[in-house]
Amino acid sequence: MKRYNIVYILGILLSFIVSQNYTLSGFIKDSESGESIPGANVYLSNTNYGSSTDIDGYFIILDIPNKNYTLNISYLGYEKIEKEILINENLTVNFELIARPLSLDAITVSDEQLNRKNNFQSSRIKLNNLQLRNIPQLAEADLFRSLQSLPGILTQNDFSTGLVIRGGNTDQNLILLDGITVYNPSHVGGVFSNFILDAIKEADLQKGGYNAEYGGRLSAVLKVTSREGNSKKFRGSTSISVLSAQTLLEGPIKDGAWIIAGRRTYFDQLLKNTEFYFPYFFYDIQGHLYQDIDSKRRISLSLYTGEDNLKWDDEFGIEAVWRNNTISFNYRVFHSQQLLSNWMIAKSKFDILTGLGRNSSDGIVEKDYIDDFTIRTDWTLFLSDERLLNFGTEIKKLDFYYNSSNNGEQIFFLEKYPIESGIYTKYKFSTEKVLIQPGIRLNYYSGLNKKWYLDPRFQLKYFINDNRYFNLSIGQYHQFISTLQDDFNPTIIDAWFATDNSVKPGSSQQLTIGIEEYYTDDIYIQCEAYYKKLNNMLTFVDKNSTVNPSSEYQSYNVLDSLVDISNGYSYGIEVFAQKKTGRLNGWVNYTYSVSRKLFNDQEYYTNWDRTHVFNILGNYRISDKWDFNFKWTYQTGQPYTPIIGYYTESFPPTENTYEVIPGGRNSERFANYHRLDIGAVRHYNYKGYKIDLFIQIINAYWRKNPFNQRYIFGDSQNGVDDDLDGIIDNPSEDSPIKKELNGFPLLPSIGVKIDF
To answer: Are residues 94 and 134 in the same domain?
Structure first.
């Protein structure tokens, strides 16, 4: 009997103790639009209980004792909320934040300390729509050009938005729009990226060391999240600039919202029948729709379609059309306060048609596409405030088609139908001084004899004190599909290829260490060092390089007939300082980096190597009516391969032949690059309409920055007649004439945006 009483009393006590600990969860949204706010800080004053919202605006705080608390909610660009709250049961509460200008906002370290201790910031940058729009741009705000002002991120030249991140080629970045893979997200050879900025909620970039939930790429992950749409009222905006026009509409639909945005360039119509006519245009359509089934379940649809079209009927005849199409269906379920899942079915297709010749079907023709059908599920289990478990799986059915021909004769043909999949798990836990997250990903690829590849990942954060942290990340990565690298002439439009048994899949090993420091006046400083080893990159063989194509064409159906394999490595140091709020906000950063490639027993710099890079970017709010912004960049000149002789190439209908003698791969460099961009925005309010008139000047002091070389050759049998006297009368006349091609000149632009 005594034993029974003891057990009974212990049971009552245990029940009493457990009952005193509860869970607080809910959603944080924008008061005007009803959209969720990711990254908001939620914490209980004078306690260690706190969290931050995820991409859906959801937060959860576990194991809270029965007591009265002051609940604090804060986010950059919004008014802070303080509310007295009694925790005596499991609570689900929702809050709406009121937006305010960044110049009037103020944050304190205490607002974000708990958030920082629970999350990894190493090699990671998140930018919301407001921050992205404050960066000087070419004609209109662009996501990729905004990211290029961050440390460790480059582009190959002025006419490219492709992201070169920590020495990795552009195809080594996983680009996701609402979870959908986007394969070539750029227009005009890179002047614009595919994403319409007004339709974007957040850009989350992980430059390296990302954990096990992502695979299939060697360098970085960029997650672009669409805005959900206004669930409270219909609204829209329209804007027009020198190069393009766009419109956005959004509004509520039952228990949800929708948003759609469209954009088109119009200089093909504006300059028609003038000497400046350029027969090119592109358009984008980007949309999102969601519907809440109930408080725990949501379905959503996301889509993008875009096309670039160039048709130039001149001496040669040039035709190029490339398209991106994506669509995804998502189903999100809260099984409980602590367990949620997301299910996705998605389809993404990128296709290219290019032709060169009077009749493109009789000239040089390239047709190719990649078709991606994906099923993915992700699960999140909140075990406690110190422990979080993520796991999931992904299956991709891929279709590849590539066909190139010259005058009806096939050069290369390839069709592949591989399946790529992955299973992952990661576990995050923390102690008083350390945050640790091990992870592992198991990859499967059907197109190889060896089908399974294991990728371990590990992240660590050590709390030196409340405002200073040491970070470490290490991991292995595999890539089974890629574009082909051309060391002589980087391509504008990249075709994707599936790895086959003739070559090995790409792989990399990454190590990153760093320190981050937070100051009470909202100044943040981060210093990181990284090393990345790259293996099995597909590189054009010499005879198939675009500067020296072979006149002897054959049909192939395996990759090693078209490419050779190269390895490489990169390392560097990045320093980043940011001021987030106030009338003057922005950042300064410096990057020292080295990016090398090893090919056929040669070691040389990659096309995108820039030893020193310095960026300074700022936005100054002069008044409620005026904003001024600026961006200055300095970069070491990029390497290039000089041409020291003639080359051979056949262009219908002339059939002229030239032979090339290239110098050492990337053995020379262009002059150092620097450029100043400035802009100003005038804000108006007229009869309920918000109107922004903007003016921007790209390359304000007209720096002539070279990005390529043009070589002038003469008759293939007689050399080059430099003095045009009809004969070769000087020994030096057998060398090609070199002429530099420069990037952007001074480019002023003006535009207007109207919100209604």
So the answer is: no
Residue 231 lies in a domain: no
Which residues sit opposite 422 in a β-bridge?
394, 443
CATH of the domain at 180: 2.170.130
Residues 6+ apart with CB under 8 A from 554: 411, 561
Can you read off the two tokens belonging to residue 497?
Answer: 């290829």
The top-scoring range by mean pLDDT among 184-193, 321-330, 665-674 is 321-330
Least-confidence region, from 291-300, 480-489, 672-681: 480-489
73 and 31 in one domain? yes
- 190: domain range? 124-221
Structural domain includes residue 187: yes
Asked if 67 and 33 sit in the same domain, the reply is yes
Reduced 3-state DSSP string for 694-756: EEEEECCCCCCCEEEEEEECCCCCCCCCCCCCCCCCCHHHHCCEEEEEECCCCEEEEEEEEEC
End of a domain among 56, 77, 108?
A: 108
Backbone angles phi, psi at 588, to 5 degrees: -130, 140
State the CB neighbour count (10 A cutoff) for residue 703.
17
Same domain, 188 and 164: yes
One domain, residues 148 and 215 = yes
Confidence band for 582, pLDDT divided at 50, 70 and 90: confident
Q: Are residues 156 and 194 in the same domain?
A: yes
Q: Is residue 89 part of a domain?
A: yes
Q: Which two tokens stand for residue 440?
A: 């592992």
Long-range pairs for 678-682 at CB < 8 Å and ≥24 separation? 678/136, 678/628, 678/629, 678/630, 678/631, 679/136, 679/137, 679/628, 679/629, 679/630, 680/626, 680/627, 680/628, 680/629, 681/626, 681/627, 681/629, 682/625, 682/626
- Show Cβ contacts of residue 597 under 8 Å, excluding neighbours closer than 6 positions: 487, 537, 539, 566, 567, 568, 603, 604, 605, 606
Identity of the residue numbered 233: K
Please tell me whether the overall predicted TM-score, pTM, comes out greater than 0.90 for this model: no
Please identify, among 108, 141, 172, the residue that sits at the C-terminal boundary of a domain.
Answer: 108
pLDDT in tens, 677-730: 898 989 999 888 899 998 888 889 999 988 777 776 654 444 444 445 555 555
Distance from C-alpha of 251 to C-alpha of 235, rounded to nearest angstrom: 6
CB 293: neighbour CB atoms within 10 A? 13
Pick from 308, 364, 341: which is nearest to 493 by CA? Answer: 308
Rounded distance, CA 55 to CA 378, Å?
14
Q: How many CB atoms lie within 10 A of CB 565?
A: 18
If asked whether residues 129 and 173 sit together in one domain, one would say yes
User: What 3-state DSSP class applies to 183?
Assistant: coil
Taking CA atoms, 66 is separated from 46, 387, 641, in Å, by 15, 21, 70
> Considering the domain boundaries, does residue 102 fall inside one?
yes
- Strand-pair category, 409-416 with 387-406: antiparallel
Please list, residue by residue across 329-364, b when 16 or more beta carbons sit within 10 angstroms of its beta carbon and e when fewer do.
ebebebeebbebbbbbebbbbbbbebbbbeebebbb
Q: Which two tokens stand for residue 317?
A: 């005849």
Please tell me the total count of domains within the chain: 2
CATH number of the domain that residue 92 is part of: 2.60.40.1120
Distance between CA atoms of 734 and 217, rounded to whole angstroms?
Answer: 45
**pLDDT tens sequence across 418-467:** 999 999 999 999 988 999 999 999 999 999 999 999 999 999 999 999 88
